[in-house]
Specification:
Length: 397
Amino acid sequence: MDKLKLAELGERLKAGGAKMGRIVSGKVKEMKEILQTPTPESTMVDEATLETLEEPNWGMNLRICTMINSEEFSGSEIVRAIKKKLSGKSVVSQRLSLDLLEDCTLNCEKVASEVASEKVLEEMVRLIDDPQTDNGNRVRATQLIRAWGESEDLAYLPVFRQTYMSLKERGTPPSVQEGNSLPVQYAVESFGQQPLSPPDRYPLPDSGLHDADGSAFPFNYQSLPGEEKKEFLVITRNSVELLSTILNSETEPKPLKEDLTLSMLERCKESQPVIKGIIERTTDDEGMLFEALYLHDELERIISKYEELECSEKSEERQQLENSDSTKQEEESEFARKPGETLPPKFDTELERLEDANGGGKQPDNFNGVSSSSQLGSPKETKIVDSQQGGVPGSSI
């Protein structure tokens, strides 16, 4: 009995310690977020999701979209700031954050992949499952996940479809089913300072990391503290998984030149030197070192696979082009032979006509003259012979 009691007590202490560890970790994370220097993106998101706002500030929202499209803002930083707002306790900020997230996803080409890689969908699912969540916010989050999951234009991001199907399979809460209408969509032209084309579909996302020198990264990852290095490793792992899902899909031909594929490939390539730097500088954290080594190998593997598929695709295109050229040459040769087949009859006909024209006035006359002379010569000769024959008898008489 004493051993059983001790075992139960040990289990309780273990569970309590794990719970306390999670609480402390959460509090430390909150304190770090509070003490972290705000970025221009997070400041703008704070202004767009103020608790004092009674309704969304559409002008602010769409100005943010315009700045993301012009690369003045980092899409990943905007998404991180929105995710932070969703995890908060303010009902108003959560609602306004969902509105801003929807606007950015609809109007920007650099947000959907960030939503997937930053695990914003997981935060939205937690918001839906939280019994203390406002019903209106729960409905709105569910509607967004449903719209993304049913969108064919986001089919290259399986996480949207998987999250939607997961919610659908386990059953939607009754409070969510009451919301029947989808949220109203807004176009950028109504509010943005720079006119943009209204989105008629969900855009294929882009990573927004286009600078060759890596200046588009929101941080200098070589000088990041341990916690933010771990965050970067998580983002890199998500990028590798997304690119791997795309390349291993059954779709033929592979979407190698799609914006999403290229953006994930670019992110993986830009992550390589950062991961290498983390490996070289990590000496006191075996877990981080092993994770970085694993990601280093995975990055090389997935990039090599992309290059192999690209090489194979180019080879097939070259073969198709050669076949097309060969077919074209055969058609041209056949076309060139056909006139040669029809010319001899025409040429012969023309030749016969010319021969008839040249020979019609002479050859027939000569031929007829010969015939007539020969025919006339017979009676003349006959007369001469007859006269000669007649004269001989007359003379003899």
